[in-house]
Write a structure and sequence with these properties.
single chain; 4-stranded antiparallel beta sheet; 24 helices; alpha/beta; binds arginine
Amino acid sequence: MNILDALRTRFEPVLAEWTDDPSSVIEMLKASQDAKFGDYQANFAMPLAAKLDGVKPRDLAVLIADKVDLSDFCEPLEVAGPGFINIKLKQDWLEGLTQQLVPDERLGVPVTETPQKVIVDFSAPNVAKPMHVGHLRSSVIGDANYRVLQFLGHDVVGDNHIGDWGTQFGMIIFGFKNFLDEDAFQQSSVTELARLYRLVNQLSDYHANKIAVPTRQTEIEQLEDKLKTLEETIDQSDKKARKQLKKLKSDIGERKSELASMQEKLAELEQNEDLNSKAAAFPEIARLARDETAKLHAGDAENLELWKQFLPECLDAIQVVYDRLNIHFDLTLGESYYQPMLADVVADLKQKGLAQESQGAICVFAEGLKAPSIVQKQDGAFTYATTDLATIKYRVEELKADRVLYVVDSRQSEHFQLLFATVKQWGFTDLELQHVSFGTILGKNKRPYKTRSGDTVGLESLLDESIQRAHTIVADNDEAKPDGPELSEAERLQIAEAVGLGGIKYADLKHNRDSDYVFDWDKMLAYRGDTATYMQYAYARVCGIFRKGNIDRNALRTEQSVLQLTEESERALALQINRYSEILESVAIEARPNYLTNYLFELSNLFSTFYNNCQVLKAEEEHIRTSRLLLCDLTARVITHGLSLLGIRTCERM
Ligand code: ARG
């Protein structure tokens, strides 16, 4: 049961006496931060009183507390401080509620009464290039949201809206026509296509850098001049000037290191005879590759044939990564799927008077937004926005969507603002659209995470490294056990896989998704702290208790054993277990899996406190022992279930 919901439902009609819109303040009823303020706390008396003339918040809190009837499951309400209402659940009620969880496979989480058809648009790499660290967040956050919504009973469709029609195809087509290694292609076409993509990319970068280097040098010289003048004239007591000086120095340092890495790359390529001659042969390679894309889009038979040949290979390559991450899609309808619909979309927008010509392009000017959305460029080409509009129409008309989540980098937020505004005007007013945006993964230098040589980090090699590191940690931990190691090599490998992949996913999910985060191996895989490892370990610890006591967990659940919450730490643990439902509901509404990671971390901590304070196997009396074993069992079930909704596995031994 969702306790928070139950409380709010009781308060809402009471609040209606003092406000026309109780729903606007009802969220101020929350779980309390500190047990001394009760289990839940309501703070709405303050904002409500502020709107009423001459009413003191505390008096209003007393009036509300008197009026609302919670006597069936709460202790009498307490009003504290300037007007907080503290709510404490009745002990026997909480015991009964916890008891009901024992046989409940859903762990107290009801199936929604208002199921929606939800499309989760996630991962969506531009295929034809290998997946890299930049694809991690959308894949992992999208997958977690998918799983939570599905568990709550929504009809969820995971759609991988891959970029399969973009410039990267021009690059491999160009590479295929000019640099193909036939034998390699026969052996493994995916590997050869990836090589061709990297080669063409490298050669285009080479020429771009060659042009950029002198400009960079001039820029640095100018900054150095500025620095010199500043150093000569600076008044050391001027704090602002000192700050400016420091910033200038760091800017120069940064640019110099960028320049150095550009020069290094240029030199590296020039030293390679083969690459050097290729670079010399195609100074215009970037444009030539773009021309191949344009030909593809214009329907050129040869390029279309090549595209059709390459696409399945590209899909196979990304599937390898999804299989490793245990991520599943119901649909993979990429950008190319919508190409035949784009002309009609533009025609319809024009006909409805929403799109107009502006400087040769066709634009939509959405109400309240400054920038227009371009749906057809001067040269007749359709855009990313046109494709997204066609996609929405398809999702509503064919898939019957009620809600669409776009799990996409925050750098695209303007695109989605324009898109959503356009869609409303276009007439899809009932559709709920949500940009589930996220920040960037940074390196320790607080810049986007790269390899030491400055290249993007491949996703597969990242997963490999994580599993390898996890293996060392698991093996060390096993060796250090007081009674000697317990695990076979096969078990260690299995655990390392769960810890390594879980660690990466968890580190990504635990942050507020809007912010950037720093990728840190040591923190991510640590046994202590807010990590998957810590929770996986808590789970294994509970399994250990059952092993040691030779206890059949299924029997324990069915034997009508009675649950009691005598100790404070038992009560706190039970309350947390019962909050699972309200947490999942909040994840589903805001598409924020970090609510679930926070919850699980707190649950593991409360379990630790309980386990340190209370004897379980050696409990003084049989009925206490049984009751505590039930609490252990429930904790482990919520941890493993919660982690599974995050796409993370647990192991019975670690
Ligand atoms: N392929 C796009 C990119 O890599 C992301 C697509 C996201 N989904 C969408 N419907 N726009 O930037």
